[in-house]
Amino acid sequence: MTIDHSQYFLAPRPRPIRPPKLHHATFMTMDVDAMVAFYELVAGLQPVYYAQHAAWLTNDDANHRIALLRLPGTHPPVDKPHSAGLHHTAFEYETFDEWLDNYERLRDAGVLPEICLDHGMTMSMYYADPDGNGVEIQVDMFHDWKVSKEWMWASQEFSEDQIGPQFDPEKLVAARAAGLTGDEIHERARRTEYFPANPRLGVTFDDPWPAKIEADPTLAEGVPLPAAVDA
């Protein structure tokens, strides 16, 4: 039997002695206002600095966790769901109840997830921001990063399926209302007891740009470049 090892397994692994921590993600955008409004609603990110051309937002003690840049020459992506690049950013709640409460809050505001997955170590709901970037809202179902990391590394279950079953979040809301705990709901979700009636095919997000450009053809021209200054 041939084992399909990755290049990471086969190659040397040079690492810094003291690795830096991930601090923030930066997005090129053509609409700073829409992006600020979305990330504040979905993940509680508030602007530290906010202008027409850029914004820096945070939801903790860091000076920023998301940066948004509207730079001259920025243009709409082409076939965004199938282009190489960032798939999604992720934000984590500490408890199952906080996580599910957030789903209900966003649902009531008219914002629904594109796909919901029980990955095993997390239960995750994936949203799409106004530019078509994915945003994962998750909760660690082992309640301990050390344990969930060990499960990812060692379990046969994750080795065989890194995506996990889909679930209908409304069925989770009903199960909690019936008295089930988060751990019980997680176990049942892994057994596909909350599988959606209309599951999503694939884990890519819909491309919003064709409809945006149809509604406003000037978007295809991109963010204008600065006017030339005569000497």
TrEMBL record:
InterPro entries in the cross-refs: Glyas_Bleomycin-R_OHBP_Dase, Glyas_Fos-R_dOase_dom, GlyoxalaseI/FosfomycinResist, VOC_core
Ranges of residues in domain VOC: 21-140
PROSITE patterns cross-referenced by the UniProt entry: VOC
Superkingdom field: Bacteria
Coiled coil region boundaries: none
Protein name in the entry: VOC domain-containing protein
Taxonomic lineage: Bacteria, Bacillati, Actinomycetota, Actinomycetes, Micrococcales
Source organism (scientific name): Microbacterium deminutum
Xref: Gene3D superfamilies: 2,3-Dihydroxybiphenyl 1,2-Dioxygenase, domain 1 (3.10.180.10)
PANTHER family, sorted: GLYOXALASE DOMAIN-CONTAINING PROTEIN 5, GLYOXALASE FAMILY PROTEIN
